[in-house]
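Hey, resending since the last one bounced:
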Amino acid sequence: MSVASRLAELGITLPEVATPAGAYVPAVRSGRYVYTAGQVPFVEGRLPVTGKVGGEVTPEEAKDLARTCALNALAAVSSVAGGLERVARVVKVTGFVASAPDFTAQPAVINGASELLGEVFGDAGVHARSAVGVAVLPMDAPVEVEIQVELADWAE
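The structure tokens again:
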């Protein structure tokens, strides 16, 4: 099944690529790999919720936000790879969770991103991962996710 068909089956439409909030680009292609910048859970150009996970933001809300981050990352990948059909596999996911001092379930939050990638790419979506708790993220976002993918056809 193609990635486009899988997205349609899941009822997912890729968002527009988020406008960078600084002096960087959303994704860079280097040979057979695409690296994304950290993607916060923008929905139509704004954060739907802000604050710390385990404080103002519940772990369940944060898991959904991590899924949104992954969708934004896929949009960034698609923009430089010539589409998601060229993705051979997801290699690495790094997730950052703005955490209340006693919150320790960062991996459960970042599962939102990992599960989405598995739903979209199947076995090719299984990846290495880091889930890191941090004091604060840009714009007081609760989560940020970056991904690295390998392309099947990487000729420039």
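The chain has a mean pLDDT of 96.

Sorry for the duplicate.
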